[in-house]
Amino acid sequence: MTATGTGPIDEARLEAFAGQVVVDMGAAISGLMLHVGDRLGLYKAMAGAGPLTSSELAARTGAAERYVREWLGNQAAGGYVVYSPSDGTFELPAEQAMVLANDDSPVFLCGAFEGIAACYADHDLLVNAFRTGQGVGWQEHDDRLFSGTLRLFRPGYAAHLVAEWLPALDGVVDKLQAGASVADIGCGLGASTIIMAQAFGRSTFVGVDIHEPSIVAAREAAAKAGVDRRARFDGASAAELPGTGYDLVCLFDCLHDMGDPAGAARSIRQALAPDGALMLVEPMAGDRLEDNLNPVGRAFYGFSTAVCTPASLAQEVGLGLGAQAGERQLGRVLREAGFTQVRRAAETPFNLILEARP
Fold first, then answer.
1. Taking the CA atoms of the chain, what radius of gyration do you get in angstroms?
2. From CA 168, how far away is CA 152, in angstroms rounded?
């Protein structure tokens, strides 16, 4: 077998790659099945319930048994549930439940697939962006991107922000406990701001975001959490950050989405107190493309192509930093903005945390 212009085909390599694509095909359609199971509460109904038949799961969730039966077949084939041929039951193991049914688990991932569903729904926007080079604004996306992003990031923030990331910054926790002024830029639906406000009752917080519907939702969430007197939310960009003299400014997974990240960092530096700190949380990435050719990098490059880079290109300057910028390039952006001290303070398999000082 030959392919035009490429020389002889290696049959073994062809078979192996075709097999890889078949695996990805199954993963792609199973991502939809995961999103459906999440929306219908199928995983939550199975969590801790032991073995269930398709009829029992359908009765628990109010879903049609015939659809549930087919869905369970997909889940069993993928190893998401365990099938028992002897009695025709399906069980969700505790480990899978941590990933699929427990919103508070640090490894909960259903939010990612909610966001991916939004990307599929927006594929015409992305195709047009490829053809024109234009950006796609955050506000142009399917609403599931906003809720999915919240559900993807919040468990990690809840697990690491107060317990690990803030303590890794020099002297910041002492200030927060005594009463500090904090800004959370690109706060989205307010998860990170609220987590900090719940942990540090003497400090005050302001969250800003350019997406007004997210700000409205963040205010409602803060009121529900009982921290709305100390955590307020405003529709604004980094350049429009209200006030000065902040002891801490935070950027959670958003600097790379900005059209002018250096300009945003410069505004933040000017808004900080003389001894204030910037905490920058970004997706984990190495400095070179070859450092990121792994499953996490594959996912982040995908999100960066569909969401992050288009968001940046839709804004003024339109740098298009991308979600896999890496520590070296992020440090260069911060130093260009006038920060003189930049260091890696902490990390997780999914996050890189930098501390920057004027």
1. 23
2. 23
Contact 218, 150 (CB under 8 A): no
8 Å CB contact between 118 and 170? no
Whether the pLDDT of residue 3 is over 70: the answer is no
Average pLDDT of every residue of the chain: 96
Residues 6 or more apart whose CB falls under 8 angstroms from that of 278 comprise 248, 249, 250, 251, 265, 268, 269, 272, 334, 339, 355, 356, 357
DSSP H helical segments within 142-226, as ranges?
144-160, 172-178, 191-199, 212-225
Residues paired with 85 in a beta bridge: none
Read off the tokens for 268: 């933040």
Angle at 307 between CA 302 and CA 114, to 5 degrees: 80
pLDDT band at 7 (very low <50, low <70, confident <90, very high): confident
Q: What is the CATH number of the domain that holds 92?
A: 1.10.10.10
- Domain of 255, CATH number, reads 3.40.50.150
Both tokens assigned to 327: 């520590």
Q: For residue 52, what is the DSSP state?
A: B
Confidence class for position 5, pLDDT limits 50, 70, 90: low
* Residue position matching structure tokens 């039951």: 89
DSSP letter, residue 64: -
For residue 174, the surrounding DSSP H or E stretch is helix 172-178
Instruction: Return the bridge partners of 344, or none.
Output: 354
**Residue 130 CB-half CA count within 13 A:** 8
Same domain, yes or no: 205 and 341: yes
Our count of domains for the chain comes to: 2
Note down the domain range covering 25.
2-96
Q: Are strands 246-252 and 272-283 parallel, antiparallel or unpaired?
A: parallel
Are residues 91 and 166 part of one domain? no
- Reading the block at residue 274, the tokens are 């003389």
Judge if pTM exceeds 0.90. Answer: yes
What are the Cα distances from residue 139, in Å, to 97, 221, 259? 32, 20, 14
Give the DSSP letter of residue 189.
Answer: T
Four-CA torsion 304, 309, 314, 320, nearest 10 degrees: 160
Q: Which residues contact 129 (CB under 8 A, 6 or more apart)?
A: 135, 136, 310, 313
